[in-house]
């Protein structure tokens, strides 16, 4: 899975820590998502969608090998 979370976070001018606090996770979780080491749960994806005011598919994309 590919994601644009880092770009979306930069658009809102949020640090990893600020984003983490907004959605109730650790900064390490945000870092792991951005570096594709962790696939977020449906609940976490929906929280990000709500915060960014965008559909989940706008920042998480399946790749051919997924």
From TrEMBL:
Residues 5-59 form the HTH cro/C1-type domain. Keywords: DNA-binding. InterPro entries: Cro/C1-type_HTH (IPR001387), Lambda_DNA-bd_dom_sf (IPR010982). It holds the Pfam family HTH_3. The keyword DNA-binding applies. The keyword Oxidoreductase does not apply. PROSITE patterns: HTH_CROC1 (PS50943). It comes from the Bacteria. One of its GO terms (molecular function) is DNA binding. This is Helix-turn-helix transcriptional regulator. It comes from Aequorivita antarctica.
